[in-house]
Amino acid sequence: MPVDNKIDLGGGVNPAPNPAPATDYENQIKALKEENEKLKSTASKNAGEASDFKKRWQETLSETEKAKLEKQTLVEERNSYQKELKVLGLTTKYVKLGYEGDKAEKIAKAFADGDTDTVFAMQEEFIQKIRDTKKEGETRGVPTPQGGTSDKNVTQDVFNKMGYKERVALLDKSPEVFRRLNANAMKKRQF
What pLDDT, in 10s, does the model give residues 121-151? Predict the structure, then answer.
């Protein structure tokens, strides 16, 4: 039985897809580019007008008003620099405590801004990280106990794999077993 690849949408007619002509898209792109250029020129014109207005406004100010405006600007700059300096000092302190650079800066900014919620959240995260690291360190390096072997049943392979401290412990507990296994190990080392 032959397979029909056409899908019947009802009525026995399969409409062909109707792609939009490429010229419609090109016209839309062209129109958007023109509109973008108009907006750019308007923004540039507005910026120029604002600058001119500011110059004219400053010319109308009296010397006292100009001095007040300049003083206000300088105070704002000083406050900004003081805040930057405070954040830098706090960042340094947080790095010394063990915070990573970007997190130290983030918590320092939050502290300088008085955002206690962020400060406490980041401190909580930092403390948890320290706790996790401590737990990891406590379990790292702890040897896995050897189950079911007594000093009398130590094989030559187990003895050969032992470190210095383990061999000294075996010598203390079972000198005769140690001497026998050590003698065998020495024989294998001879050329």
Answer: 999 998 888 888 887 766 665 555 455 456 6
Q: Counting beta carbons within 10 angstroms of the beta carbon of residue 51, is it exposed (0 to 12), middle (13 to 18) or buried (19 or more)?
A: exposed
For residue 52, how many other CB atoms are within 10 A of its CB? Answer: 10
Distance CA 152, CA 89 (A): 64
Beta-carbon neighbour count of residue 174 at 10 Å?
16
> What ranges do the domains of the chain cover?
82-137, 153-189
The pLDDT of residue 110 is above 90: yes
Place of tokens 């296994």: 181
Q: What is the token pair recorded at 106?
A: 């983030």
Task: Please state, in angstroms and rounded to a whole number, the distance separating the CA atoms of residues 54 and 183.
Answer: 98
* DSSP assignment letter at 61: S
Is the pTM for the entire model greater than 0.70? no
Contact between residue 136 and residue 126 where contact means Cβ atoms under 8 Å apart: no
179 close to 167: Cβ distance less than 8 angstroms = no
